[in-house]
Structure formats: C-alpha cells, structure tokens
Amino acid sequence: MEHLTGKVAFITGGASGIGLGMARAFLDEGMKVALADWSDEHIAQARERLAGSNAVHFVKTDVAERESLRSAAEETLEVFGRIHVLCNNAGVNGGGTAAGESFDEWDRVIAINLGGVINGTKIIAPIIRRQGEGGHIVNTSSMAGVVPLPGLAAYSTAKYAVRGFSESLRMQLAKEGIGVSCLFPGATRTAIVPLPEDRPGTMDEANAPQFLKDLWDAMRGAIDPYDTGRAVVAAIRENRFYIFTNREFLDEVKQRHREIEDAFPDDEPTPGRVKFETMRADMVRDLMAPGNRPVVPRSSAELDRGSASPAGGQ
Ligand SMILES: NC(=O)c1ccc[n+]([C@@H]2O[C@H](COP(=O)([O-])OP(=O)(O)OC[C@H]3O[C@@H](n4cnc5c(N)ncnc54)[C@H](O)[C@@H]3O)[C@@H](O)[C@H]2O)c1
Are strands 85-88 and 135-140 parallel, antiparallel or unpaired? Predict the structure, then answer.
C-alpha cells in the first residue's frame, strides 16, 4: 500500500507501547486510527497523549473474545466507514514453562497472543476483502518467535505460531492486493516490562533480585516504540513481510538457520519426493507473484536441472 493518507487502521493493543507507536506513526501519515484495547488505564493515558487529534477512535475490546472484537470492528466502521490496515498486536507476557503443570496461565497467553491474531484476522480480513480497496495486515510476533525465550514457553509457542499463520495468510491474500507483514520486535520500551519508575512505590529496586535489576537496566536502553511504528509504515509501503527492528539478534538467527540447514540429510531425493516439492513450490510461486516480495521458489525447470531445494533467490 503506497498511499496511506486517509486510510483507516484498526490496532489491537493500540493504547500502549508498540500499538501506540504504530498509531502515532500512522497519524503522522495522515491516517485515521481505531485503538482497540482492554485496559481502561492505557486508554485513558493514550487519550491524553493523542488529545487534539480527531482522527483517533478508542474502543474497548478483548481480543480473546470474538464477539467483543466483532463489535469493536463494527463500531470502527460506524465511525470511520472503512478499515484498510489491521494490526493484530495485543499481547501479554508470561505463560509458564513447557513442562510446568499449570494450564491456566498457558491458556490465557495462547488465547491472547495467538488467538487474538487469529480472531482479528478472521473477523476483519473479510471486511477489508469486501471493500475491494486493498489493504494490509500486520501481525505482531516477537524475536521470541524466531529464537526461543527461556522460561516463557507459552509466549514463544504463540509467537512462533503467529509467524506460521501470517505466512499462510500472506499467500492467501497476495492476489487480492492485501499485503501481510509479520513484526518481530526485540526489546522495546513498553508497559509489557514495567520499570520501577513507571510505577513509583511499587517496586523495590535496591532489594530486587539481580536478574530483575539487569532486566530493568536492559529495558531502559530498549527501542522506542515510535521507531517500531515507523518501521511498520515502511514495511506496509514496500509490501514487505518480515519486519525486524533489533539487529543485535542477527548472529543468533544466522546460527539457528545454519543449524537447520546442517540437519538436512545428504541423500539424493527420489523423483516422487522431488515431484511433491516441485508441485508445492510452484503453487507458492503462483500465489505470490506478483504480490509480496517473498523468497520466490525456483521454477520447476530450475528444480529439474538442479537440486530439490525449495529456496530460491529474491
Ligand atoms: N515490548 C517488547 O519488548 C516486545 C518484544 C517482542 C514482542 N512484543 C509484542 O508486542 C505487542 C505489544 O506489546 P507492548 O510491548 O507494546 O506491550 P504493552 O503492554 O505496552 O501493550 C500491549 C497492549 O495490549 C493490551 N492488551 C493486552 N491483552 C489484551 C486483550 N486481551 N485484548 C485487548 N487488548 C489487550 C494491553 O492493555 C496493552 O495496552 C505484544 O504482542 C507483545 O508480545 C513486545
């Protein structure tokens, strides 16, 4: 989507942090924004911060509740008449470990961080499609959806899944002029990791465990969410799927990709296996061209001539 002025964005978790950063960046482009959030406190703070703008609408919603999200979308249509950009961004921290016994926190984190993205897409993508004016969907994953975050298994599980869901969505919508991006923030200075200065009197920094002191210290130097919002604007304009903001993760990502490539066996694939992969790769190429700018799989002819590798150039 090259022309953003006048377009309408619906942002979940829009009243704080990265969602609010996107909202500010969109407003700078002359867009209108519906900020959907479940926190009265965050909505009140964001209302104050964006006071004076008549291009903002706040709507209270819980992304884990489909009917609540549906009515938030309907309210946005009543106010702005359209939705062109959907940002499925609401998320919470935590979720517990993979082998821990409790399901409570696990289910809640999956319901919001993954369920919220699925609900938002299934409720609002049909609206964008019906309008027939094109659009863009941005789903917020995390660096924890690329490299694991120790101890936060539910969070990582949801964020890896958001990436898979978004890859599939991108293929489905590419030919309809609706782009899809997946956002992978690293440490970003937001309310998801509150610092002692955010809630005076509630955290005793002097007597906190060293791990927390180190974490707070690191988060004080984290990325400004407005910069993340600007990166999202650029990706929407370029119709780019991957949005990375934190270069400090690059070495580890490269190591991880090397580990995956090194794990492949050396054997020669049988013609049947090559045929399966050729069919799959051809389908992906057909869906994607001339839509997004993905890794375009090699053509069947190239695959016949060379290896069975699905990966190709740009
Ligand atoms: N801040 C980071 O370092 C970081 C890193 C990677 C990914 N992320 C992701 O970025 C997204 C935004 O988080 P943030 O860092 O801006 O945190 P934040 O807490 O500042 O903002 C999240 C917003 O989502 C809202 N929210 C939470 N659950 C909701 C629900 N069920 N329904 C509606 N609204 C809900 C909260 O009220 C809050 O306003 C999340 O998906 C998070 O996982 C953040």
Answer: parallel
